[in-house]
Design a protein that fits this description.
Rossmann fold; 9 strands; alpha/beta; 6 helices; globular; 7-stranded parallel sheet; about 35% helix; two-stranded parallel ribbon
Length: about 210
């Protein structure tokens, strides 16, 4: 029987997948409260939503309390400005908050990763994501679900010309692109995580792009 009284924690709620994830968690009957751990307040009001301003470099363990942690935190090298900052956002923050969450008794971690992740990859971004996945597996969450989407489709708040061109080409070439690398709707990525969180997955589950 599904627990109808859960508290979900979410980091990365202001992003493309994170926005869908936040809304789906708020809409889901299994959650009585959704706690968004944010750097600055989100422009959203909901009776089930509680926002906690968090210093991600020095997270307060008292704020990381709940049943499940959802992570859609991530950035691009262009937005981050350097590999060091990107590594901090994509690798260090998700791990450190996960570590604290597990110490506080959080039972499930639900992560948005990326297709092609590999801790030994020569590609910086894929290596960071791969290293994060491996480190999270060592924390001992009873349930760890990782989704590895390819190109994300959806409406972002900021305009990215390169991404718009990429989406156009991805749609044009879709029939010949292998399923693993086809674009996927951000809302579908969020839905895959929420569904997994509510079917009592035990151990580690990795969902590749074609399974989302």
């Amino acid at each position: 029987m599904t627990n109808q009284n859960k508290t979900a924690l979410i980091i990365g709620a202001s992003g493309l997948v994170g926005g869908h994830l936040l809304q789906q968690l708020l809409d889901h009957p299994a959650y009585r409260e959704v706690v968004a751990l944010v750097r600055r307040p989100l422009d959203i009001n909901h009776p089930k939503l509680r926002q906690e301003i968090l210093d991600f470099d020095h997270p307060d363990p008292a704020k990381i309390q709940g049943d499940e942690l959802f992570c859609a935190l991530g950035t691009t090298i262009k937005k981050a400005g350097s590999k060091e900052v990107q590594h901090r956002i994509d690798g260090i923050y998700p791990y450190e908050i996960g570590r604290i969450a597990r110490q506080n008794g959080v039972r499930g971690y639900f992560l948005v990763s990326s297709v092609g992740t590999d801790a030994k990859s020569s590609t910086f971004y894929l290596r960071v994501k791969g290293e994060l996945e491996e480190k999270l597996k060592m924390l001992g969450f009873p349930s760890l679900v990782i989704v590895r989407p390819s190109f994300l489709l959806g409406n972002r708040t900021e305009f990215r010309l390169g991404e718009k061109i990429g989406i156009f080409l991805a749609q044009l070439l879709r029939p010949i692109i292998p399923k693993r690398y086809r674009g996927v709707q951000a809302s579908a990525v969020a839905a895959a995580l929420v569904a997994a969180a509510n079917r009592n997955v035990e151990g580690v589950l990795v969902l590749e792009n074609e399974e989302i």
